[in-house]
Design brief:
Layout lengths: L9 H38 L2 H7 L8 H20 L4 H28 L4 E2 L13 E2 L1 H22 L3 H25 L6 H20 L1
Antiparallel strand pairs: 1-2
Length: 215
């Protein structure tokens, strides 16, 4: 099963299953596929060229429960809200997709951007900065993250139909990823937030974009 592998701790696996149940209750198999797609893509990206990342000190530890809830907590809450308030299920299901688009964009851009990036800059100052530091981005990583966001948007649209929401989910994921970097370069570097808080914030930010679009 996708939630039980050597890169995910036991508590992380349990948390992943809890998120899965909540998302399934509110969005059925299409929503569950979105969550699984994030886990699969994120795990694959984390393990890609792992020896090189280890040599740079950029490899990630095992995913724990806090990892699952920081990336999937918004999707979990939206799934439960969709289940409890079925009249608004379309809204909450789109918010699930946007939050996971942002989580996917963030994970792919950081994990693969560190490998394929050529020039790294601080998102606030736009000056060269060190690979892997909070708030440091590259064009390559940002583009890879954007691709991941639109992959999630496409999976969502395959089950709901193609329309403007496809573009909005993809864009929300990209903006959520950039918001993550902005928080990383400011509040996280100053010690006011940790990585898990920033991950939760970026997924919430993306979900709120869709909320205001559809409302």
């Amino acid at each position: 099963m996708v939630f039980f592998n050597k890169n995910i701790s036991f508590t992380g696996s349990l948390a992943g299953i809890i998120v899965s149940i909540a998302v399934f209750l509110g969005a059925g198999f299409p929503g569950l596929i979105l969550w699984i797609a994030f886990v699969v893509l994120g795990t694959a990206a984390s393990q890609w060229k792992i020896e090189l990342k280890n040599s740079w000190g950029l490899s990630q530890p095992k995913r724990t429960a806090v990892h699952a809830f920081s990336n999937g907590g918004v999707a979990m809450v939206c799934g439960l809200a969709s289940w409890m308030f079925p009249a608004h299920s379309i809204l909450f299901q789109a918010m699930i997709a946007a939050s996971l688009a942002s989580a996917t964009a963030d994970t792919l851009s950081s994990e693969l951007g560190s490998i394929y990036g050529r020039r790294f800059i601080n998102i606030v100052t736009l000056k060269p900065d060190q690979r892997g530091l909070d708030g440091v981005i590259s064009w390559e990583g940002t583009l890879i993250g954007g691709l991941g966001s639109f992959i999630v948007a496409a999976i969502y649209s395959l089950s709901t139909g193609w329309g403007p929401v496809f573009y909005w989910i993809g864009i929300a994921g990209i903006l959520g990823n950039l918001f993550d970097s902005l928080l990383g370069a400011t509040l996280q570097r100053r010690g006011y937030m940790n990585n898990h808080m920033v991950n939760f914030a970026n997924t919430l930010f993306a979900a709120l974009i869709i909320y205001f679009y559809l409302k």
